[in-house]
């Protein structure tokens, strides 16, 4: 789908790498620009598989790697030449860093007016927090999402998945890049995309924000309708200490659940938010082990599924049937969420600088010149 698109990736760690992996999986030629010697330090964080961290490998397939020292004049000039041949540049520096390197938007746009520059930051390019350091837990906290991730009277706890990083910093950025590239294809000029992970996280809170502002339900931990406040939509502990997820919001699903459990007395309690109602449903689910309940509901439309441990996920029949978890020489990966055909995985995650000679040859760097650049610490 994106086989004619080239993307230069200046990012490190999770958000930008996940974003450019999404583009690479769709066929884009993603060139990862890394610092000579050290590279993306995500390479070295965690269990090593085939010379890099398993987590790094999981989000850097289908890319090529070039080392360039952008603090050197020669490195910046080579980057400019690569930019003139690219369709998009993705970077994750704090605001102002690209300008100080002499690679800001005005410079890059002058090199190629149709270029799309995507800047992924925690708080955006403007505002009092623009240059503030942060991580996913901070962005989710400011967006109001973290404060709701608990039961009433309990302290919020971090989410195990980096929601703002992946959802806003990766998915949001990729969507914006595709929209901008489509506009360029229809004759519009390039543009600078200001992607804030905090903004993205808050955008997903819009239903709760609108409801509370209209004088409706107040968003409180463990009390919102979809946050544990309703007996028909929450997580329940079973007799063996494992858990079930219940999402029987529609009456037909709740009725089917109560019938299958032989508990007609629970039918009136679907939307009863009292402690007594919750306690009665908790007592029911606590009477049997998780898998016993799963078997009891097999084949029924009750919107009740087991809460799986991570090591159970790959073996789940639905996950297996969709071919989502794959094992490669570079470690275990998750396939694209939207199938793109059998040829989506073209390249293993790249070694540091693995494609430097290949890519720089396109801008006239021959073997002798490459040796000089290596000696000078440029590549």
Descriptive account of the structure:
- The model has no long low-confidence stretch (mean pLDDT 97).
- Helices cover 37% and strands 15% of the residues.
- It folds into 2 domains: 6-203 and 328-376, Crotonobetainyl-coa:carnitine coa-transferase, domain 1 (Rossmann fold), CATH 3.40.50.10540; 233-307, formyl-coa transferase, domain 3, CATH 3.30.1540.10.
- With 379 residues, it is of the alpha/beta class.
- α6 (136-142) packs across α8 and α7 (163-185) crosses α8 (197-203).
- It is elongated and about 80 Å long.
- β12 and β13 form a beta hairpin.
Q: Architecture of the largest domain, CATH level 2?
A: 3-Layer(aba) Sandwich
Segments where pLDDT lies below 50 for 5+ residues?
Answer: none
Say what the CATH topology of the largest domain is.
Rossmann fold
Strand tally is: 13
What is the count of helical runs?
17
Mass-distribution shape: elongated
Strand content: 5-15%
Radius of gyration: 25 Å
Please report the first level of CATH classification, the CATH class of the largest domain.
Alpha Beta
The helix fraction, in percent, is 25-40%
Taking all residues together, what is the mean pLDDT?
A: 97
Supply the CATH superfamily name of the largest domain.
Answer: Crotonobetainyl-coa:carnitine coa-transferase, domain 1
What is the distance, rounded to the nearest whole angstrom, between the alpha carbons of the first and last residues? 31 Å
Q: What is the count of structural domains? A: 2
User: H/E order of the elements?
Assistant: EHEEEHEHEHHEHHEHHHEEHHHEHHEEHH
Neighbour order of strands in the largest sheet: 5-2-1-6-7-8
> Class by helix and strand content?
alpha/beta
Biggest sheet, in brief?
A: 6 strands, parallel
